[in-house]
């Protein structure tokens, strides 16, 4: 008889495709609301945006911290996966970099809220920060290398430095509606462009 608990004799089954889709829908809805309303957005608003009941959210994510951490990881993965796709589909490597930085800015606005929520669990946040760097620095490097090889930007721009600079531009973006971090990040990326 099979057991869904996932012990040594009976490993946990992978989630069904519809369960993965439902979870992705929840995480996309939560991420969108976190960007506009912060990580304290009401669960009922997240449920309404995702088209599910509040109970469904709590079934997937028993605590707000569980939901926020899942959104964080989901957004890191979305950013990581977007880089190669943008390189393959954009009009130029610089355009791909510009679009990727937009995604990164949206992610960072959410991340600042996450930092406040996880303030009491420094070890947990440190592991998430390492995960973030491990997944995103190589993607940014790939985008920068492609733009440099195309002669669109200087070849000495380091991914970590650029990401840190963009991160600094995002500080305060979640608390001041007059401050547009995306616009400043756009100006930064435009400024990298080599004249032709």
UniProtKB/TrEMBL annotation:
Pfam family, one: TetR_N
Region (Disordered): 1-21
Keyword line: DNA-binding, Transcription, Transcription regulation
Domain HTH tetR-type per the UniProt entry, residue ranges: 20-79
Residue ranges of the annotated DNA-binding region, renumbered to this chain: 42-61
Gene3D superfamilies (UniProt xref): Tetracycline Repressor, domain 2
Keyword DNA-binding: yes
Transcription regulation is among the record's keywords: yes
Name under which the protein is recorded: TetR/AcrR family transcriptional regulator
Higher taxonomy: Bacteria, Bacillati, Actinomycetota, Actinomycetes, Kitasatosporales
